[in-house]
Amino acid sequence: MIWKGAICAAMWLTIILLSSVLATSLLSGILGMAGGMILMAILVSTVSVAAAMMIHGAVQATANGSRAWFLRAHIQWRILPAYLLGAAIALGGFMALALVPQAGVVLIVIGIFPFLARLLSRAAPRLPGLDITHMPTAAACGAAVTAAQLFAGASGPLLDVFYLNSALDRYQVVASKALTQTLGHLIKLGYYGLFIGVVDGVPGWFYLILMATAVVGTRIGTRLLDKLKDDVFRRISGWVILAIAAVCVAKGVLDLLGG
C-alpha cells in the first residue's frame, strides 16, 4: 500500500507541474509577466528551493526564449550590452557569497517586488531615469533583475520598474523582457546547476516535457496578445500581479512562522 501511495503522490505532482507550466506560460505570453512568479511560488511549495530554481530556470528559459523568438522582430537589441554588464556584476556577487535562500524568504521577496514597482510607478514623474532604453538604466536593470532571479527565482515585477518611462509599445515590452529574462534564467541554471551543484533527481525526459509544455502555453499566449490594446494590457497586468504578490507574501510569512 505504501508504494501505491507513493505512485499516487508522484502522479499528482506531475499533473500539478504540467498544469502549472502550461497555465503560467500562457499567462506570461499574454502579459509578459506574472507566469514565472506564480510558477516559482508553486515550485517552492512542492520541492526544495534549489530544485525549484533548476526546474523554474529550465522551464522559464524555454518559455521566455520561445516568446522572444515569436516576437523577435520587436526586440530592442540596443538594451542588451548594458544589461549583460549589470548581470555579470550581480552573478559575481552571488558566486562570492554562494547563497541559497529559504523557501519562505523566496516567496516574501517575490511578493514584495510588485508593490515596490507600484510605488515606483507612482513616483515615475519624479524618476525620469527609469527608462530601459537608457544605457545606465539598462545596466542597473541587469544587476537588479539578475540578483532577484538568483535569490528569488522570479523577477518579472522588478523588471517592469525599468520600463516605467519608456516609449515602447506592448510588443516591444514583451519581446525585450522575454530576451533578458531568458538570459537571466540561463544564468540561474548555471549558478545553481554548475556552481552550487544542485542534483534535483528530476529525470531529463520530464524536463523536456515541461519545456515543450511551456512552448505550447507561450505560443497560445502570444496569439492572445494580439487581442489586447496597450491601455488594457497595462491595466490588467498591474492588478493581476498585485493580487498574486499578496498571496505570495502571506504564504511566505506562514511558511517562516510554521518553520
Written description of the protein model:
This protein is mainly alpha-helical and 259 residues long. The chain has one domain (2-258). Helices cover 78% and strands 0% of the residues. The chain has helices spanning 2-31, 35-44, 49-70, 80-97, 103-122, 135-152, 156-161, 170-195, 204-225, 230-258. Helix 2 runs antiparallel to helix 3 (49-70) and helix 5 packs antiparallel against helix 10. The two termini are 30 Å apart. 47% of the residues are buried. The mean pLDDT is 79.
Provide the fold topology.
Elements (H helix, E strand, L loop, with lengths): L1 H30 L3 H10 L4 H22 L9 H18 L5 H20 L12 H18 L3 H6 L8 H26 L8 H22 L4 H29 L1
Short description:
The chain is mostly helical.
Biggest sheet architecture: none
Broad structural category? mainly alpha
- H-E order: HHHHHHHHHH
**Given the C-alpha coordinates, what overall shape results?**
globular
Overview features:
259 residues; mainly alpha; 10 helices
